[in-house]
Design brief:
Layout lengths: L1 E5 H11 L14 E7 L2 E7 L3 E8 L1 E4 L1 E6 H10 L4 E6 L4 E6 L2 E6 L16 E6 H11 L14 E7 L2 E7 L3 E6 L4 E4 L2 E6 H10 L5 E6 L3 E5 L3 E6 L18 E6 H11 L10 E6 L2 E8 L3 E8 L7 E5 L1 H10 L4 E6 L6 E6 L2 E5 L6
Antiparallel strand pairs: 1-5, 1-7, 2-3, 2-6, 3-4, 4-18, 7-8, 8-9, 10-14, 10-16, 11-12, 11-15, 12-13, 13-26, 16-17, 17-18, 19-24, 20-21, 20-23, 21-22, 24-25, 25-26
Helix pairs in contact: 1-2, 3-4, 5-6
Length: 364
């Protein structure tokens, strides 16, 4: 195999696929990137057996072929070369020679035949979104995914297709984040799948343009396909809980709150708290939202957000981190807080299909 390629393009391609390479693996081949040279370009592929990422890069291919080389070492070399063009040549023992300007390095690779083969699957449904829309959807909910090992089905994002509407859901049992967003196109059957958090995070990282991204969903796998990259992931097996049961059917009060001012006050008063079990108290009364916190070890904090509220006073307490995360994720000037009392779930409406439900803390 022999080719020449732009050093910068090769570096960007490697950066797209490098995230599946872990620090330790029982299989040495999983630390390598598969390079396939054919026609007018290369295909670079990495996998950890759960997620597979492939991308292409233009190249002048003199001799077609396949090989694998250590991915992190290859990226380290390519990023430290200084000339524009990179030459790559691999012999029958999979020893790869890299030439860039007056620099030359050799990497000892492994046979491409040992690299895990791609597992083909038949999609049962296909969704198309703008990359920016899907990235926003995942950014607005992935922080709510559970990290508790005892409930595997909550380790991912639910993608539920029903009645021409697609819902993306994340919950850890204490808060719930939902985005309902119509795709640009939809084919196939209705149904639900659970996308692993790692796969959702990869899409947030890689879907950085305004082009289309196609989601192909099978029974046990899903593929996310853009013009530059394909991410294939296993799905989480199991039944996701009925998240709609935790969303109250009605609320007594709806309050419009300026997003950034509210977030700033939460972050301010949280400075006086000492541990994760602490809470902030929200008090709604007389056109003011008071944000208060206190701890015996550090002190007290009080900040006020001006709002329009003339109803009965309501006082409710929250984990400050849980309260701040959706405010960082939405891109609206005002959110709507829907309340009943100081002990019932509160829903934050961030518009454009986003809803966040949080359980108050019982601090008394």
């Amino acid at each position: 195999m022999k080719f020449k390629v732009s050093r910068e393009k090769m570096m960007k391609a490697l950066q797209r696929v490098i995230s599946t390479i872990g620090n330790r693996s029982t299989l040495p081949i999983l630390g390598n990137v598969l390079i396939e040279a054919e026609g007018a370009g290369l295909k670079l592929i990495t996998t950890d057996l759960e997620i597979r990422i492939s991308t292409g890069v233009e190249a002048a291919v003199d001799e077609a072929g396949r090989t694998t080389v250590p991915a992190k070492k290859l990226l380290a070399l390519v990023s430290r070369f200084t000339d524009d063009e990179l030459g790559f040549e691999c012999d029958e023992r999979h020893h790869a020679t890299l030439c860039c300007g007056n620099s030359k390095c050799k990497l000892l690779g492994l046979s491409a035949d040992d690299f895990p083969a791609d597992t083909e699957f038949t999609p049962v449904r296909r969704l198309v979104y703008k990359e920016s829309d899907l990235r926003r959807i995942f950014s607005q909910i992935t922080y709510a995914v559970s990290l508790d090992d005892s409930r595997k089905v909550l380790h991912g994002v639910l993608c539920a297709c029903k009645d021409n509407l697609v819902s993306f859901v994340a919950t850890d049992g204490k808060r719930l984040a939902v985005v309902e967003k119509l795709p640009e196109s939809f084919e196939g059957t209705e149904g639900e799948v659970i996308i692993p958090l790692r796969a959702a995070n990869e899409i947030k990282r890689l879907a950085d343009g305004e082009e289309k991204i196609t989601i192909e969903i099978g029974d046990k796998q899903a593929a996310f396909i853009t013009d530059t990259v394909v991410v294939t992931s296993k799905l989480i097996e199991g039944n996701y809980p009925n998240y709609r049961l935790v969303i109250p059917s009605r609320f007594n009060s709806q309050v419009s709150v300026p997003t950034q001012a509210f977030l700033a006050k939460i972050e301010l008063v949280s400075q006086v708290l000492s541990d994760n079990n602490s809470y902030v108290v929200l008090s709604f009364a007389d056109n003011q939202l008071k944000v208060q916190a206190a701890s015996a070890e550090i002190g007290e904090g009080l900040a006020i957000v001006e709002i329009e509220y003339a109803g009965e006073p309501i006082e409710v307490s929250f984990n400050p981190a849980f309260l701040a995360e959706p405010l960082r994720a939405v891109a609206v000037d005002h959110i709507t807080m829907n309340l009943n009392d100081g002990i019932s779930p509160v829903a934050i409406d961030g518009s454009d299909g986003f809803l966040y439900v949080i359980m108050p803390m019982r601090n008394r």
